[in-house]
Amino acid sequence: MWATRNSTLGGSAAVAQPMGPRYDAYAKRLDTPMAVMAMVFLVVWSSRIIFTESLPSQVKATMLSVQGIIWLVFLADIIIRTVISEKSWKFLWTHPLDVVAVIIPAARPLKVLSAFTQGAAFASAKGRLKTMQAVVLSVVLLLWIGSVAVLSAERNVTESAINTFGDALWWAFVTVTTVGYGDFSPVSVEGRIVAVLMMLVGIALIGVVTASVAAWFVQLTSGSDDEAGEAREVGRHEELQDQVAALEAKIDALLENQRRER
Length: 262
What we know:
about 70% helix, disordered N terminus
């Protein structure tokens, strides 16, 4: 049966796009290794930027080589997926995170966001739990990626106040939560692009959390109503049983009286 795990980001409930048995077999075999490679890329990329002043040049060159190799693997991966998919080039349109992962390999772990687009994401307790887990992981990854990205863009800018990873992490927190204290703000074009992306994703994540909490309250309310309705039905059933028993007793009494009169 064709897998329907992947879905389009966007809309309240995306429709899964089956890509064919060849694609499913390929994805089942390589999704986990590719996720591991993405985490390796994320660690190497982050370490190279955060500790750039203390790393030897040879180590930094090795890190860049590792990043380049992983990027080439991701590029080959999306080409293969596009070729073997029965939807052909439609694959690129319906799997935007795979495309983003080629451009920005560090963002590949954010594929957990696909859990938000499943039509049944909030329909069950299990679906809501999975969604909330994806939210938490997405927030952590977003803070991590955003902090490192803005630090890379702002560290060498004279007018910027974001010069350390601590500053970048604080900025990422207030940006994702849309608080925006203004004590730290990017001044470079690259930094502002990172800021816009983080604000947009932050708003989306807040919306998901709100929807999940609302669905939880609806379930609690409907659950209480169902229990109350069930209790009423049980009461009516018992009342009817009592009435039937009383009628049977009256009928038995009438029959007994008739027998005596005879």
